[in-house]
Design a protein that fits this description.
By secondary structure, the chain is an alpha+beta fold. Helices cover 16% and strands 33% of the residues. It has 3 helices and 16 strands. Strand 2 and strand 3 (32-38) form a beta hairpin.
């Protein structure tokens, strides 16, 4: 999956440091990122390539000994950042980019970019938030509110019916491949209850024997995905929620033509069923 970057090591401990010339700088504009391609691989600008811009930089994380920082155009950088040889690409490029650790760094940085962008002011009293120097946290000096990065729990569900698995396609989304039932955990429910609720809401099926498989940080939606397999309980007649799904159906192993993309928990779970479940 996208976070599996071994033998490289991801260090997310916060540091109150400034970038040096060789540190990588992530520059985002909404859902696009400033990159170039070298030998087919993604590359981010280093600080030394941004000398003409006056920006604020936030430390993000390190991979091995390489440090990554976030630059904010707009309020903290008066001019849009453009660098010869670089261009803005949609962040979906991280799904297919060569150099796995570089793609993981980019989408994780975008998760933090969204958090910093959306939390400039205190949601309790409206005062401007400040950066803490000891941990990755924003705080309000007026009402002492503390704001941490938002991570939303969500589930991916492989519903099994004997030798078949339920696969679906999203409605109204750019991603058009087959996927599994998925959804966010609501206030006051366990993730197991989320599994049962989402399956009932999206395809009108009851499930049993809910069992945990694996988790994945999924920065594309700011989520922590938790994968579950479960068994059909009762009728296999699908009642589709067309506001969420374009289609859904039962598929045997021989009918699955997807290949492992080495990116998503959804695809890994489908491949798990196809090969050996």
């Amino acid at each position: 999956m996208i976070q599996d970057i071994y033998p490289r090591i991801y260090h997310n401990e916060y540091q109150d440091v400034k970038p040096d010339d060789h540190d990588f700088i992530l520059v985002f504009d909404k859902n696009t990122v400033l990159v170039r391609f070298q030998d087919g691989k993604l590359r981010y600008p280093a600080l030394k390539e941004m000398k003409g811009f006056v920006c604020g930089y936030y430390y993000l994380f390190s991979i091995d000994h390489f440090r990554y920082f976030l630059a904010f155009p707009g309020n903290e950088c008066g001019t849009a950042i453009t660098i010869d040889g670089y261009g803005y690409e949609n962040v979906t490029v991280f799904r297919t980019a060569l150099s796995r650790h570089t793609a993981f760094a980019g989408i994780t940085a975008h998760h933090l970019f969204n958090w910093y962008r959306d939390n400039r002011f205190c949601g309790r009293c409206g005062s401007e938030l400040s950066h803490d120097r000891k941990e990755r946290m924003l705080f309000c000096s007026e009402c002492h509110n503390m704001v941490y990065p938002k991570i939303a729990p969500a589930v991916i569900v492989g519903v099994l019916n004997g030798d078949k698995i339920l696969m679906s396609k999203y409605a109204g989304r750019s991603y058009t491949n087959y996927a599994l039932i998925a959804g966010f955990t609501e206030i006051g429910e366990s993730v197991e209850q989320t599994v049962a609720r989402e399956v009932m809401e999206e395809v009108g099926l009851k499930v049993k024997n809910i069992r945990y498989y694996k988790s994945q940080p999924w920065a594309f939606s700011g989520s922590l995905l938790m994968g579950f397999f479960c068994d059909l309980d009762g009728s296999d007649e699908i009642r589709l929620d067309t506001s969420e799904l374009a289609e859904a159906g039962w598929y045997s192993r021989g009918e699955i033509t997807l290949e492992d993309d080495h990116i998503s928990l959804t695809r890994e779970m489908i491949m798990k069923f196809k090969s050996s479940f």
